[in-house]
Amino acid sequence: MSDPLVTVKNLRIAFAGEGGATIEAVKGVSFEVGREKLGIVGESGSGKSLSSRALMGVLPGHADVTADAMSFAGIDLLAASPRLRRQLRGNRMGMILQDPKFSLNPVMRVGAQIAEAIRLGDRSLPRAKVRRKVLDVLEAVHIRGPERVYDLYPHELSGGMGQRVMIAMMVVREPELLIADEPTSALDVTVQAQVLEIMDELVKRRGMGLVFISHDLNLVSRFCDRVLVMYAGRIVETLDARRMHEAVHPYTRGLLACLPAIDGPLTPLPTLAREASWGEARP
Ligand SMILES: Nc1ncnc2c1ncn2[C@@H]1O[C@H](COP(=O)(O)OP(=O)(O)OP(=O)(O)O)[C@@H](O)[C@H]1O
Ligand SMILES: [Mg+2]
Questions:
Q1: What value does the mean pLDDT take over residues 125-132?
Q2: Is residue 195 a part of any domain in this protein?
Q3: Full residue range of the structural domain in which residue 87 is found
Q4: DSSP character for 187?
Q5: Which of 13, 92, 119, 147 makes a 20 to 30 Å CA pair with 131?
Q6: Which of the four pLDDT bands, split at 50, 70 and 90, describes residue 265?
Q7: Do the domain assignments include residue 1?
Q8: Mutation to probe ligand 1, out of 11, 15, 65 (largest number of atoms < 8 A from CB)
Q9: Which residues are close to ligand 2, an ion, with C-beta < 5 A?
Q10: How far apart, in whole angstroms, are the C-alpha atoms of residue 64 and residue 208?
């Protein structure tokens, strides 16, 4: 891959545990993101969210983060000032979280929040045009009655609506990198498909890089170009999404075997075997 958008080398994230012990949550992760859809799968607690939050620069203050390299669009993120990192988050890198509660401002009406995101990108746009753009993007994420939703506060939205509003707020800024952490978990399949379509369009039309974190191996293999498989704080496998069946790591093979076949016989699903040795460093 020439000129990757993101390069991460040997990222480690640790927390102080009880009695002065250190808990290593991410244990030396390296990957690149191009102008593509990169999926990250892996069991709960394997370090998917932490790794992507490190890239965004939004880890909790007590996290101990080290890396040999971490760059975005040629910018050395390890050397970047907090101010530059904030600026990058404001307009060039976006993140969609599973829970909209943490991304939306609870005391600001939905329309005003999206309008603010648009104005950040283009301060010269007249008010009426900004309003039109907000309504258009709400419609694009299939919010019914966008005029009404414009004036609602985040707590007045359902979970699925909140998620779509957050997606609208992110895509409207057309970031160069979008990290989507379980972005569609609260959506109906039809709405999910439309939201994926919007993200896909940004990747194809604008050359955005998308990091798509999900537990849904089926979805990831259909939607993404490449897939990283994480297990216990490490990337154990990187696969071409169309060649998931060629996975060799026992954890990935286990995941694949657990996928129910829609037209298959109703046999009990195998349970996922785990072994402590998978989490150990490989030579
Ligand atoms: N603030 C924190 N303090 C201490 N440990 C943490 C903190 N945040 C995360 N961890 C630990 O780091 C590990 C990785 O967490 P992370 O959120 O990255 O998992 P994940 O792969 O995103 O899981 P999930 O699929 O459930 O979202 C977990 O074991 C978690 O307990
Ligand atoms: Mg997570």
A1: 95
A2: yes
A3: 6-279
A4: S
A5: 92
A6: low
A7: no
A8: 15
A9: 49
A10: 29
Query: Residues with beta carbon inside 6 Å of ligand 1?
Result: 15, 25, 42, 44-50, 60
**Which residue has its alpha carbon closest to ligand 1 atom 11?**
25
Distance of CA 17 to the CA centre of its chain: 27
Give the residue from 108, 103, 109, 105 showing the smallest Cα distance to 89.
103
Would the pLDDT of 33 be above 80? yes
CATH of the domain at 20: 3.40.50.300
| Residues 23, 15 contacting (CB under 8 angstroms) | yes
Q: Tell me, yes or no, whether 265 lies in a domain.
A: yes
Give, in degrees to the nearest 5, the angle at Cα 142 between 139 and 148: 60
Give me the DSSP letters along 86-112. HHHHHHTEEEE-S-GGGTS-TTS-HHH
31 touches 90 (CB < 8 A): no
- Measured at the alpha carbon of residue 210, what is the angle toward residues 207 and 214, in degrees to the nearest 5? 160
Q: Is residue 187 part of a domain?
A: yes
Mean pLDDT, residues 66-74 taken together: 98
How many structural domains does the chain have?
Answer: 1
